[in-house]
Design a protein that fits this description.
The complex is a heterodimer of chains A (708) and B (192). With 708 residues, chain A is α/β, with parallel strands linked by helices. Chain A is 53% helix and 12% strand. Chain A has a six-stranded parallel β-sheet, with helices on both faces. Chain A has a four-stranded mixed β-sheet with strand order 8-5-6-9. A four-stranded parallel β-sheet of chain A has the order 14-13-15-16, with helices on both faces. In chain A, a hairpin with a 4-residue loop joins strand 5 and strand 6. The longest helix of chain A is centred in the N-terminal third of the chain and has 21 residues. With 192 residues, chain B is an alpha/beta fold. Chain B has one domain: 3-Layer(aba) Sandwich (Rossmann fold). Chain B has six helices and twelve strands. In chain B, a hairpin with a 7-residue loop joins strand 10 and strand 11. In chain B, helix 2 runs parallel beside helix 3. Chain B is globular and about 40 Å long. Classes of the chains: A alpha/beta (708), B alpha/beta (192). The interface between A and B is large, with 75 and 55 residues. Strand 9 of chain A pairs antiparallel with strand 9 of chain B, so a sheet runs across the interface.
């Protein structure tokens, strides 16, 4: 992968404790601000924005034609750049022919993508970034580590040291003082620049307009002072109408920084007259470089075209568990963060995208927070798949992708497996040959599988009007069988006829490592058997949120069949299902209320996609359990990823879990509640506190028994 | 457009949240008095104006000159001096075509970049908007933007509060490259 040693990069990054703390706090803060600003943004808004982006992309060629006509009519220069090189050459040759010396730039990831600065500096031009964060990153000789906050990895102390080293000015480590200094330092550069370069947030075809969004005001100066303005904009930024444009402008700042509106939006469709030093007004030359660089190819790619819908708000960065501890230099190539993986694929190729794709743990939070619901996890999985298909999958990924088969195998002789898995030799073998970190203690197998246990329970078959097909998933099937039994009890107590169709594990482990052929096999098997029940009026219910996540969001895309779609529509995670019954007054409320029991609730990532209203919290409240909800996002387990040896998984996973672990460890609660069996492993191993599936509590309450 | 007082209140409250100020005034005399007060308070030496109603600009010019500061309408300035003055100005005063109550935004279409620079370069920007040009929601702008960009090639700026950054440890600092202060005057009813 182009000489990249990701493990070394990760181990280095994990030593930088200051950066981890700063980044983590910043990301949580940005997440919360964003969530507050987007509180009124509904599912319908998501769908509308998605359809705006979709229709803009499907009429892209036509829009390009209209844009070009409009701009040329206004006397502007339009250039379509097929490649990064074409774009750089155009700008350099323009600058040469106009005797440009000094160039000022407003923040633009598109110019980062094509490495324009490097090109121009090599040609002898002076190029100055003017966005505060970009300027800091430029003088540090680095690249931006975040889409909207490029210098988020630097602390105020590092920044004041940096300015002293590079500019020779001693400043206190105070953002106000630094900003004041940079204002006057860069003002002189603006006033003496010959050319201004910007990116663009939107292009509006119907009026040939460029739209630039900034907060600092550098975008305005770059486009109003120099005698030449070049904007380099990716083709995907093009929309047809102003109706579309204002919808994007309305959402972008909210989702990006939690601002109701960005400070400055500059709209122009020609170069206007500018006052020159010691001279009158002169018309500025305006050049629009419309950049392809892989985008039009991606548009034809059924999976990757999804990334072109992105409006680059960066909300996905803030929730990404691995990004939040490693930062954008490790979790990135030039583009960083979750959506940076498919973008890298589009503009810098498969190898470079795969060079950091393994850091994605498929928690899906990026997708959940995206204002357009972009399915980044599927794109990342596809990238892992394409890379694996071309270069072979890594041994450890193949083994862990088959985790569900391993469980099935080991469960043939549970006593022996439980004994063996506890021995040091076996742990050594597992680490060496499978890639499971030796520090991981694997859960104990149930003496009998859920199927065997239920055969007894099902002997007393109850006929019910409402019918449920229960999907256990591997953990409740072979290990936490008590969860499966409790679910069946509770559903039966509420008058359901419950059955357990033939099933295999959900396939998430193979999806996570990009072994999509295996995922597809599993999906086909599960859909075939579940559909048999769904077509007869059964609902599919699972205690494992990840399973329902797969049914809803992974299977339909992988299989593309009507059966998969119908199974998706009839699949529910148990507590969302129970909540609906409660709301329809159909839930049996004759259960015990507990007293003096305290718990913390951890919300699993995959649950967030399934029920927006945190149904478990509602039930814990009804059970009388005093519950604290703490929200540090993903626990860092990522299914089997957190079991992966050393710096490939375990070490990162442990650091991701830190805030959650210390909050739990410091509290005096009796236990932790979560639905996900893998979050359970993660929390138990690092806190030593008992983690309980909420259905066990409800089941006990129905039976009038004390909490487990 | 006939805007009720709740729209104005909402606009002013959004401006204040952004760290700007908003003031509802009745007559030109009130405006002149208010701005003269700001000029004195800020110790401004050079004030530039653009895109204002002629009578207002001449009254402002007279009043500000009388308190010892220089004040010009950029239309009256020798074009070769324009750039130098813009670089030196302490306060830029502009009109605004529209304002958005929901977001506290000003919408300004500029004839040329000298006009645009009035709200970019000086550390203080004062904008004057007529009450009836305040719209409620941002999304209502679409039609107007389309019309403006179709009928001319003027640059449009949508400005929401003073210049700001959060690039260092997410701490918000005002006045990076644009104005550090923004004062908005809303003109109500009969200016006489």
């Amino acid at each position: 992968m182009k000489g990249r040693n990701l493990i070394a990069e990760v181990s280095e990054a994990l030593k930088n404790r200051n950066q981890i703390e700063n980044l983590r706090t910043s990301m949580l803060c940005m997440r919360d601000k964003r969530d507050a600003a987007m509180a009124g943004y509904t599912e319908r808004d998501v769908a509308e924005l998605r359809s705006i982006r979709q229709s803009s992309l499907s009429s892209l060629n036509e829009n390009i034609k209209i844009l070009k006509e409009r701009l040329e009519k206004n006397g502007c220069n339009f250039y379509f750049a097929k490649t990064a090189k074409d774009a750089c050459e155009y700008v350099a040759s323009l600058a040469r022919s106009k005797s440009v010396k000094r160039i000022v730039k407003a923040k633009s990831m598109t110019t980062e993508e094509i490495e324009l600065n490097k090109w121009l500096i090599a040609e002898g031009f002076e190029v100055i970034e003017t966005d505060l964060g970009e300027w800091l990153v430029q003088i540090a000789g680095q690249r931006p580590s975040h889409l909207t906050a490029p210098a988020i990895h630097l602390s105020r102390y590092e920044i004041s040291k940096l300015i002293e080293e590079k500019i020779g000015v001693k400043l206190p480590a105070d953002p106000k003082e630094v900003t004041k200094f940079v204002r006057s330092f860069l003002r002189e550069k603006f006033l003496t620049a010959d050319m201004g370069i910007t990116g663009g947030n939107i292009l509006v075809a119907e009026t040939g307009s460029l739209v630039i969004v900034t907060n600092e005001g550098n975008g305005r100066l770059v486009t109003s002072l120099p005698r030449i303005h070049v904007a380099i904009v990716g083709v995907e930024k093009l929309v047809r109408t102003w109706n579309d444009a204002v919808r994007i402008l309305d959402v972008l700042p909210k989702s990006a920084t939690g601002q109701k509106m960005a400070t400055y939006i500059t709209i122009l469709n020609s170069g206007s007259e500018t006052p020159l030093p010691n001279d009158g007004l002169a018309k500025r030359e305006f050049h629009l470089v419309l950049l392809d660089n892989g985008r039009l190819n991606a548009l034809q790619d059924k999976v990757m075209s999804e990334a072109l819908k992105c409006i680059r708000c960066s909300a996905c960065f803030n929730v990404c568990p691995t990004y939040s501890v490693l930062g954008g230099h490790v979790f990135g190539y030039i583009y960083s963060g979750p959506i940076g993986i498919p973008w890298t694929y589009i503009s810098h190729g498969l190898e470079n995208a795969a060079s950091f794709a393994s850091l994605c743990i498929s928690c899906g939070l990026c997708r959940e927070t995206c204002p357009i619901n972009i399915d980044t996890p599927t794109m990342v999985s596809e990238i892992k798949h394409r890379y694996g298909a071309r270069n072979g999958y890594r041994w450890v990924d193949r083994r862990l992708a088959g985790y569900e088969d391993l469980i099935k195998l080991a469960s043939i002789a549970p006593d022996m497996s439980n004994f063996l898995l506890d021995t040091g030799t076996m742990k050594w073998i597992l680490e060496k040959f499978i890639g499971i970190d030796r520090r991981v203690s694997l859960p104990k197998f149930s003496k009998k599988s859920l199927r065997e246990l239920l055969d007894v329970a099902f002997a007393s078959r109850t006929e019910g009007e409402r019918k449920v097909a229960y999907f256990a998933d591997s953990m409740a099937y072979y290990i936490n069988t008590d969860v499966g039994l409790a679910a069946v009890n509770v559903l039966r107590k509420n008058g359901f006829e419950v059955t357990m169709p033939p099933q295999r594990g959900s396939g998430m482990p193979s999806f996570l490592y990009g072994l999509l052929d295996s995922t597809k096999n599993v999906a086909e098997y599960n859909v075939k058997h579940l559909y048999e029940y769904v077509s007869r009026g059964y609902d599919v219910v699972s205690t494992e949120p990840t399973a329902i996540y797969c049914f809803r969001f992974v299977y339909p895309k992988l299989l593309g069949t009507k059966e998969a779609q119908e199974v998706a529509e009839k699949s529910y995670e148990l507590f969302g299902y129970l909540l609906r019954m409660l709301e329809n007054n159909k839930l049996d409320l004759s259960f015990k209320r507990y007293k003096d029991v305290k718990a913390i609730y951890h919300l699993p990532c995959h649950s967030r996609h399934l029920s927006k209203d945190k149904p478990v919290l509602k039930f814990l409240e009804m059970l009388g359990i005093e519950t604290e909800f703490i929200d540090y996002g993903c626990c860092g387990m990522g299914g089997t990823w957190g079991m992966k040896r050393g710096y490939e998984g375990y070490e990162i996973s442990k650091v991701i879990a830190e805030p959650l672990v210390s909050a739990i460890s410091e509290s005096d609660v009796d236990f932790v509640v979560t639905e996900c069996s893998l979050c359970k492993i993660q929390i138990e191993r690092f806190t030593g506190k008992k983690v309980i599936h909420p259905i066990l509590l409800l089941d006990k309450a129905y039976k009038g028994l004390p909490v487990p | 457009m006939n805007r009720g007082s709740d729209t104005v209140e909402r606009f002013i409250s959004e401006l204040e949240k952004l760290g700007a100020t908003g003031k509802l005034l009745k007559t030109y005399a009130d405006v002149v008095k208010h701005i003269s007060g700001l000029v004195v308070e800020k110790g401004a030496k050079l004030v530039l104006m653009g895109d204002l109603e002629r009578r207002l600009s001449s009254e402002l010019s007279k009043a500000i000159t009388s308190i010892g500061a220089s004040c010009f309408d950029i239309k009256d300035v020798d074009r070769r001096e324009l750039r130098k003055l813009l670089e030196k100005a302490d306060i830029g005063i502009t009109g605004a075509d529209l304002a958005v109550a929901e977001t506290g935004s000003l919408v300004i279409a500029s004839e040329n970049d000298a006009e645009r620079l009035l709200s970019c370069l000086p550390p203080i920007h004062i904008a004057i908007i007529s009450k009836e040009n305040i719209i409620d929601n941002f999304l209502e702008l679409a039609e107007w933007l389309r019309r403006m960009q179709n009928t001319g090639t003027r640059t449009i700026s949508i400005i929401t509060g003073p210049s700001r950054t959060a690039d260092i440890e997410l701490e918000i600092v005002m006045g990076v490259h644009g104005p550090c202060e923004q004062h908005v005057i809303i003109l109500e009813g009969d200016v006489e």
